[in-house]
Fold:
Amino acid sequence: METSWKTKLSALAEKVGVRTGTTSPLPLPPLPEKWDPMNIDERNRFIAQKLNEGMSLSDLQKMLAKDHGINLKYLELRMLAAELQVNWDRQDPKIEPAKKTAVPDLLAKDGKKASRTEVSVSKLVRPGAVMSGDVTFASGASAEWTLDNYGRLGLKPAPGSEKPTEEDLVEFQTELQRKLGGQV
Structure:
């Protein structure tokens, strides 16, 4: 006589040590040592409190699993935390800006005074430009510069800045050529 699949399953369950007739065919995992059942409101308050204290999400995830038996995936915890009132500024490391030091006038190789015009090349290119950046002229004026794909140089003075002098523009072009050094 052929045995049914139910009989085979019951025999297998008894062999592994699972009681049959229960709602779950698999054994339940043991409870953590510090079992602390929390309701949803308590859990959310606990998560918000720990995050506001500066605890990282991964540390909080480990603490919830170890101490409270709440196993959340990192993304689940992140989505849950996004809905809570959390001061996320405490999570970011504080970085102090570097202090600017005054640079004395140096002599160039040919004995003339070195240019005090400062040119920076931006890593993010402005729309319609091949290259772009900022310039601070020796006279104190400042502007944004762009170089389009036809090789035309454009200057847009910064709001509230004075107009650069002719000498400033000559120094700017020389400094820009030196700065780019064959990149164009």
Observations:
- Confidence is low (pLDDT under 50) at residues 103-108.
- The chain is about 35% helix and 10% strand.
- The chain has two domains: 9-90, 118-180.
